[in-house]
Each structure stands twice: as structure tokens, then as C-alpha cells.
Write a structure and sequence with these properties.
This protein is an alpha+beta fold and about 325 residues long. It contains 11 helices and 10 strands. A hairpin with a 2-residue loop joins strand 4 and strand 5. Helix 1 runs antiparallel to helix 11.
């Protein structure tokens, strides 16, 4: 791996951007993975290995949620123009919002993290009873659209989100360490808060409630490793899931050409996703390049903003694309 990447990671660890991370790169057909640092900042903390499992947080929205939606659209089981209420009849205040509105985050509503004190049934019922705040409008990034999309996928696919993810992606690609329900001992801890040490359960407050009850949701809660996510991105680069690529390059359920974390050399078709815990993926088909960064930058306490992790993400992307 490029020595500039290693040097930049060591600088980030010294600055306590995160205690450790794993970086994976595919460039020109060459696949590289390297682990850095430790699980935590404690002196006796184990060193990070290539196969450490991280909470990927909002990457869940793209892998697998949006990617599943794009596959079901390709199969004719779902359409961008379908109204959400076609699949979720109990959704109130639906404002005739469509599947495309969900994928583009053009509908807004309750902040799910504020419902963490409720049971998973109560969160789901509350979200559906409240519905959206108004008609589809300018895109605003929130958890609600991906949460609702996850419910749609379960009804269309007649299976749980976890089962659909396994059937379409994780099992066929050999992503054996990717799951919504990992063994905590295999995972890096994400934060110490009122819940205690959050490890092996989603850092996201609402996804945490669902996972404790054995349910996966569309907006957060997936756990994975860098080698596993590289398998997914490698498949995209190889043209295995062309419908996912076509949708991602239009910004359907993925971030597109976002220089905030993709750096100054991102192209018009560079797509990817970030996760609050300190994770990110990006993929550029024309340049046959992909990047995965997994870390637990929220440990032991989440920083006041995302400035440090985004500068790091940009710097790594700039090195890769330069």
C-alpha cells in the first residue's frame, strides 16, 4: 500500500482521530488491505487486524438497503415511480411519496434517534403513524427514508432485510463476516455512553433497539470487515451488479461526487457512502478504483463534529486518485 496512506493513518492515530482503522484499496486490478493501530486507546488494547468487524453505521443505507432496492427494481418487483403506500398501506401522511423519493431523501419526518426509549414495535408504529412532514421536496439526509425503504423491501421480498441481504449479496459474494447480528467479541467497540460499552450492537440509537430484539433495519446496524466490503465493491467493478452501479451513478441511495469525503479528484460518477462511526466507501467504475475505510472514531466518546474524519477521508482519496 502507498506509503503516503500509511503515513497519513499514523498521523490520524497520533491526533486521536481514531484508535485504529483498516483500509482497503482496489486500484488497477490490485487489491490491498492494511490494518493500523488498536481497538481502543488503552495501552493493553489488542492490535487491529484485517478482519476486525466494525459497525459500518449509515453505509447500511447503501450496502445493502439501496442496492437491494435497485436489484428489485431491475427484477420488476419494484419501480422508482411506485408510491410508498402501495406497499405500506398503513403509512399516514404519505403525500404520494415514491420509492425514488425515499432513495433521494426527498421526504422528511420524525427523528428516529429521539425514539430510543420506545420498543421496536412502538418506533415502527410511531414512524408510520406520523409519516412525512410534507410533500417531497429538496433532499435532506435523515434516517427515516432508508428505514421506510427497508420495510418496503421486506414486504416486496417477503423476507427479513437480513435474509434478503444474505440471499442477494453476502452469501453469493462470500461476505462471511458481514451481518446485522455479530458476536460482540469479534467487534471493535464504538462508544461508551448511557448504554455502557456499545460493542456488537448498532451505535445508532434506534437501530440498537431493533437489533436487541433481533430485527435488522434499513438505515443502520450492519457490521462488516474491509475484505468483505471490498468483495462487494470488486463485484461492482467487475460488472456483476450492473443495475446497482447504474443507480448509484445517478445518486439513487448513494452519495455521488461528494468532495466532502471523496476528495478533490472525485469524478462525476464517483459514488460512495459514509458512516457516523468513522467508516466510508467509495467506488469509481471508470477508474477501476474502490476504497474502504473502517474505524471506530466515536470511541470512547463521539467528537463534536466530523471535521477530522472528513479531512482524513479526503486526504486518503486524494492520495488514491492522484
Amino acid at each position: 500500500m502507498d506509503k503516503r496512506i500509511s503515513a497519513r493513518v499514523e498521523k490520524a492515530i497520533a491526533e486521536k482521530v481514531f484508535p485504529g482503522c483498516v483500509i482497503g484499496v482496489i486500484h488497477g486490478g490490485v487489491r490491498e488491505v492494511q490494518a493500523f493501530g488498536s481497538f481502543t486507546y488503552e495501552s493493553d488494547s489488542p492490535s487491529v487486524s484485517e478482519n476486525i468487524i466494525y459497525d459500518v453505521a449509515s453505509i447500511t443505507k447503501s450496502i445493502p438497503t439501496a442496492s437491494l432496492a435497485l436489484m428489485l427494481i431491475a427484477e420488476g418487483k419494484l419501480s422508482l415511480g411506485d408510491e410508498v403506500r402501495k406497499y405500506i398501506s398503513e403509512l399516514q401522511n404519505h403525500y404520494e411519496a415514491t420509492i425514488e423519493d425515499l432513495l433521494r431523501y426527498r421526504v422528511h419526518g420524525v427523528q428516529l434517534s429521539k425514539l430510543h426509549y420506545k420498543t421496536f414495535e412502538e418506533i415502527r408504529t410511531h414512524a408510520l403513524e406520523q409519516g412525512f412532514d410534507g410533500p417531497p421536496s429538496e433532499a435532506v439526509y435523515t434516517n427515516l427514508p432508508a428505514f421506510i425503504l427497508g420495510l418496503v423491501l421486506e414486504r416486496v421480498g417477503n423476507a427479513s432485510l437480513a435474509a434478503l441481504s444474505n440471499a442477494y449479496f453476502f452469501k453469493p459474494l462470500g461476505m462471511s463476516n458481514t451481518t446485522f447480528f455479530p458476536s460482540p467479541s469479534d467487534c471493535a467497540p464504538t462508544e461508551i455512553d448511557d448504554r455502557g460499552v456499545v460493542q456488537g450492537l448498532p451505535h445508532d440509537e434506534s437501530a440498537y433497539v431493533f437489533a436487541k430484539a433481533g430485527h435488522a433495519v434499513g438505515h443502520a446496524g450492519l457490521f462488516s470487515t474491509v475484505p468483505d466490503i471490498l468483495r462487494f465493491l470488486e463485484a461492482l467493478l467487475a460488472g456483476k451488479y450492473s443495475h446497482v452501479v447504474e443507480g448509484a451513478e445517478k445518486g439513487l441511495g448513494w452519495q455521488l461526487n461528494d468532495t466532502n469525503f471523496m476528495g478533490q479528484h472525485a469524478g462525476p460518477k464517483t459514488f460512495g457512502k459514509t458512516g457516523f462511526t468513522g467508516t466510508s466507501v467509495l467506488c469509481d467504475i471508470p477508474r477501476a478504483t474502490a476504497l474502504v475505510i473502517l474505524s471506530n472514531r466515536t470511541y470512547p466518546k463521539r467528537p463534536p463534529n466530523g471535521d477530522a474524519i472528513n479531512v482524513f477521508r479526503r486526504d486518503i482519496a486524494d492520495i488514491l486518485f492522484s
